[in-house]
Specification:
Blueprint: H1 4-17, E1 23-24, E2 27-28, H2 29-39, E3 45-50, H3 62-81, E4 89-98, E5 104-112, E6 117-121
Antiparallel strand pairs: 1-2, 3-4, 4-5, 5-6
Helix pairs in contact: 1-3
């Protein structure tokens, strides 16, 4: 496995999750994520992909929870398609937050098994 593939896999996965293709129950999931970020601008909306955090589900809307179940089931296949061994990924999470300039930002963070951290922003 090439470690540099983790970055592309995480970016593409997050872009899909917060993008216009993630439409559940009559609305886009990113709309719910952005609303949650705006309601509590001092807090970051965080979605843990690796390892999964079931406690965070209670903070999300039913639409987000429904989408999370699908995306978490899809993640192993998505990683495999990118040539990424998820056992080499210690952390993988997505953050949605309101910055000081009042813009909404989506950041994806990964940490591999060597301890290398990678942060990147995803734009819809």
């Amino acid at each position: 496995m090439k470690y540099k593939s983790i970055k592309a896999m995480a970016h593409n996965f997050t872009h899909s999750f917060v993008g216009g293709c993630n439409y559940v129950d009559g609305a886009f999931v990113f709309e719910d994520l952005y609303t949650l970020a705006r309601v509590q601008p001092e807090k970051t909306v965080r979605i843990s992909w690796v390892p999964t955090n079931t406690e965070e589900l209670f903070r999300f809307t039913p639409r987000i929870r429904k989408s999370l179940r699908y995306y978490r089931a899809w993640l192993p296949r998505h990683a495999m398609n990118h040539g990424v061994d998820l056992n080499k990924v210690n952390e993988f999470y997505t953050e949605v937050y309101v910055a000081k300039n009042h813009q909404i930002y989506v950041r994806v963070v990964t940490v591999d098994d060597r301890g290398k951290k990678n942060e990147q922003y995803v734009y819809g």
